[in-house]
Specification:
243 residues; seven-stranded mixed β-sheet; two-stranded parallel sheet; 9 strands; 43% helix; 19% strand
Length: 243
Amino acid sequence: MPPAEQFQPKYSILLPTYNEEDNLPIIVYLINSELTKAGISYEIIIIDDGSPDRTQERARQLVELYAPKINLQTRPKKLGLGTAYIHGIKHARGDYIIIMDADLSHHPKFIPQFIKLQEKHDYDIVTGTRYSGNGGVYGWDLTRKLISRGANYVTQLLLQPKCSDLTGSFRLYKKDALSKLMAACVSKGYVFQMEMIVRAQAAGMTIGEVPITFVDRVYGESKLGGNEIVGFVKGLVTLFLTF
């Protein structure tokens, strides 16, 4: 492995974290296992928003263990997913950016499929979908599945995107495409992911989809609450009136 100053990965994986001390070592291990097996050059940028648990301690151990593939960036408090991506892009050395959750909801085994599809069609974006092909959701109760399906149905009805899963957060972007979208995006929370796709389509960017299995977190608590749901509805209406 070359020294850090000479290491030039092709893909930069952004992992925003908050209270993920149990999940972080596992997801990093899985990423390294799957991408090393596939011969993919990568780095992981961990953006931690001041986790009060031992997430940052775990991250520092991973930096030493997997050097020079891990880059830890810390922020003083929770500042939002969008700003975490902006912060991560500033430190990304790859030509392509992969965003995914650190809570084991997204399995890294799908990343080589993302890359293969992107290379075949030169897509600006490849997004994972739970609602097409053999994609699916596991570990959710019936209520949460109905909420998710209902939200996706209403989103499809109002925005009519050429994308089956608008709220997913497992994606591959060309770095320049992600930078342009981030500069224009104004939404926060879960609406942020929807606006990224809607803006990408409005800008004429090309998008491919890979069916994925989404698995509910094993460790820690879900960050989806009443405020996020209200924000989702407001954001959806705003996007409908804007585009």
